[in-house]
Amino acid sequence: MNGRADFQEPNAEVPRPIPFIGADYIPTEEERRVFAECNDESFWFRSVPLAATSMLITQGLISKGILSSHPKYGSIPKLIFACIMGYFAGKLSYVKTCQEKFKNLENSPLGEALRSGQARRSSPPGHYSRKSKYDSNVSGQSSFVTSPAADNIERETLPHYEPIPFSASMNESTPTGITDHIAQGRNFS
Hints:
mainly alpha
């Protein structure tokens, strides 16, 4: 023994490690069923209605003259574009619903990763993640462990920019330096 007592309750639940979900992850049968269900429902209940609605609105705008039709192809290119945008908008609008379905799965590594908020992790466990040097850093300390000399070099070489308040931007009361004295000075009559 190391001189200390390690106490653990006999019925205590040991938290399972969060699985790494990467590109090589093979979904379970239940997850495949939910993927197919999400794909089918997002198509029929979101993509088709949004694509049809966007095409009808586009055709109405073309008929009223608000949008112009192509001289050679007519309204077809704009209708195809509206259909594609409606399709993708429908798919994207169903993402949250599909995530909730995966979160409700009991024995799913993907559902566990979504529940714990670790689905966006890009590196496997044990790797350091370095924040961008452009991220705001309240404490002034980097989340990536470096030597103090490297921190000093980084502070000296990178310019320090102060944020400019929105009210200091150009508006009507700020002179721009552009004048029309040339146009006023010449008279071509």
